[in-house]
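Researcher: We plan to redesign the surface later, but first we want a full-length starting point. Tokens attached.
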């Protein structure tokens, strides 16, 4: 059972500093979540980005501790058993999870904390973590999503088919989220995220 964090805020006056808040960015694989997140953090270094843990292998250019914490399956399962994750899920044969302690500490200290996570994890957090702002990133079309996944040249035909099948299911869940943004143009999508966070 996940802990629900009471978000602390100074409620004496409407002009008080903003309390911390958890922001979840999700969407199907290949939609551009990672690129949007990188650009958002360049523009807003005051945001706290929570680095997820995963059992998948690093992709070219990915750095341990910066893009993900790359850990073994047995280590991940040990951390699950110890209750160290705020959320976790299995996706495309690998585990992904959000380390709990750092996120809770940052939110309680008044920071905007952004998570870029898979749909299942996003659902877990929406259920257990009240006050979360959830953003779903959509592709312009499934054909465009397929082109982007193929363009990464990292997946077998089998894996691409699985990702596309999963993407269709995930897109149907977009209405569960507070905000839906179509990533048809990186600049426009980034502006829409900024308007949602800081508008």
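Model: Full-length starting sequence:
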């Amino acid at each position: 059972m996940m802990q629900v964090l009471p978000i602390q805020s100074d409620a004496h006056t409407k002009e008080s500093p903003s309390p911390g808040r958890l922001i979840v960015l999700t969407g199907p694989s290949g939609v551009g979540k990672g690129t949007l997140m990188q650009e958002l953090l360049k523009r807003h270094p005051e945001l706290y980005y929570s680095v997820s843990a995963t059992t998948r292998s690093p992709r070219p250019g990915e750095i341990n501790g910066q893009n993900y914490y790359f850990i073994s399956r047995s280590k991940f399962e040990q951390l699950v058993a110890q209750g160290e994750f705020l959320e976790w899920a299995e996706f495309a044969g690998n585990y992904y999870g959000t380390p709990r302690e750092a996120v809770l500490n940052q939110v309680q200290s008044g920071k905007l904390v952004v998570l870029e996570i898979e749909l299942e994890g996003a659902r877990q957090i929406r259920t257990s973590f009240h006050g979360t702002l959830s953003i779903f990133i959509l592709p312009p079309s499934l054909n465009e999503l397929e082109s982007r996944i193929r363009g990464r040249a990292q997946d077998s035909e089998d894996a691409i088919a699985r990702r596309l099948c999963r993407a269709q299911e995930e897109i149907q869940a977009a209405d569960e989220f507070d905000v839906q943004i179509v990533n048809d143009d990186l600049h426009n999508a980034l502006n829409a995220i900024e308007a949602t966070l800081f508008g």
